[in-house]
Amino acid sequence: MGADARDSNPRTLNVDSVGVDELGVVPWPILLRRWLGRRVPIDRHWAVLVVVLSALFTVGFTITILAVSLDTIADDLDSSISVVSWSITGPMLAFGVVGPAYGKAGDLWGHKRVFVCGLLGAGIFAALTSVAWDAPSMIAFRILSASAGAATGPSTMAYINRLFPTDQRVRPLSYWSFVNAGAPVLGVIAGAPLVEAFGWRIIFAVQAPLCILGVVIALWLLPDTERSTDVHFDVAGSVTLGLGATMLLAGVNQGPKWGWDSPLTIGLLCASVVSLVQFVRIEKRVRDPLLPLHWLRTRNVAYPVMSQTLANFAYMGGFLLAPLVLREVMEFDTSKISFVVIARPLTFALVAPLASLVTIRVGERSMGVVGGFCVVMSMFLFTTIDLGSPLLVVLVALGLSGAGIGIASPAMTSLVANAVDERDLGVAGAMQQLMTQMGAVFGSVVMTTVQQASSEGDATATSFAAAFYVAMGVAVVAMILSSRVTSTPRGESVTR
């Protein structure tokens, strides 16, 4: 069978033949033939997508799963909530900070190798988390697990961008966006009932074999990606960016607890600035930079990334405050809050795939503006909520937030992928992962700080409204930035 015949749609693999397919992997449907005894229609690109997204979800779901059960874990480990909270903050920081290094490593040495090693490390440290003997060991294993699992993010995006043509990437990227942004959200929602029913240790005891299973399937199914030759890994850039981003996020995250005038907070923030300035200097002179600085002057890289970062500021900050609004202002109980807040990830899951089909027709810029407007309206509705607000207003506010990110994020992600060289796809994906994570941390801290500063000791509707007004303003800027991009010309069916 010729290559043209193999590439026709719908894809059908002849499972009676044994060999290597055009992706460079053994045709795994051969095993299905023995079971089904017939030809098996398989689109291998989508099969690869399912594998990498499943791994990304397995890693991302547990990053925030302990968020609502910190008191239980603190009692179990004979520690305090403030200490155990680092089991949430640490993995969130690590997941974003180490991404650029993984992206570059995948571009240099192959994304299959990086993906498999990262997933294996996440599984090993998840198993160790399940037998942690005290709070420091649990926190350390959670950070190491997230640090290893962060490899799945840029590698997954690199596979998507290599397997799908430029004008069709937005649909698979909508699923990537949902898993990347939705898995931590679903982890928060599912965390309390899972911990209450099974205990926190069993969650990681189950995650470990799932990661190992993912490693086996990835070794079996994933194709190797091309590797850059005569290129050196930017060690100095990786170290300075990692240190700078870590200290910046840690300082912003812990500022409200330590005090913004605390020597530790000020020291972290100042040190982060020094490290990031040094990173820029390094990137200007090295032959193979970790992050090509010319991207910052590229319309379809700088604007989409900043739009996503600011939209995620409102999205994640609003997500953390929404349950507090329901409890403190509307006086909902815990079970009702869990039921209501699921409206946001549910809307995200329903809207993102449909929006991707529309994006292919109308272009990324229009969908970015529409998505940004939905987030703006979501934040505005939250400013109106008080004790007498109908439940429908809350559901619409949550739904608009999920729909807005589900519409805008895949479109903006697709633009960035189409604007960079194919050899830099892993780094581009990692950069987006880092920036959206920074947006989430900044949004969470800034909105919480504004709410507390406006409350004067009591959590009131007015204090929450002040925080949501800030988020609304940030979302407006995200919408304006998305209007400055240039949509991908439709009809381009060949990847660069």
Structure commentary:
The chain is an all-alpha fold and 496 residues long. It folds into four domains: 3-36, no CATH class; 43-230, MFS general substrate transporter like domains (Growth Hormone, Chain: A), CATH 1.20.1250; 234-287; 291-490, MFS general substrate transporter like domains (Growth Hormone, Chain: A), CATH 1.20.1250.20. 75% of the residues lie in helices and 0% in strands. The longest helix has 31 residues, at 299-329. The two termini are 26 Å apart. 52% of the residues are buried. Residues 1-42 and 492-496 have low confidence and may be disordered.
User: What portion of residues is helical?
Assistant: over 70%
Reading the helices and strands in chain order gives: HHHHHHHHHHHHHHHHHHHHH
N/C terminus separation: 26 Å
The CATH superfamily name of the largest domain is: MFS general substrate transporter like domains
- Total beta strand runs: 0
Strand content: under 5%
Number of helices: 21
Q: What would the CATH topology of the largest domain be?
A: Growth Hormone, Chain: A
Number of domains: 4
Q: Low-confidence runs (pLDDT<50, min 5 residues)?
A: 1-42, 492-496
Q: Whole-number average pLDDT?
A: 78
Query: How is the biggest beta sheet arranged?
Result: none
CATH architect. name of the largest domain:
Up-down Bundle
Q: Cα-atom Rg, whole angstroms? A: 22 Å
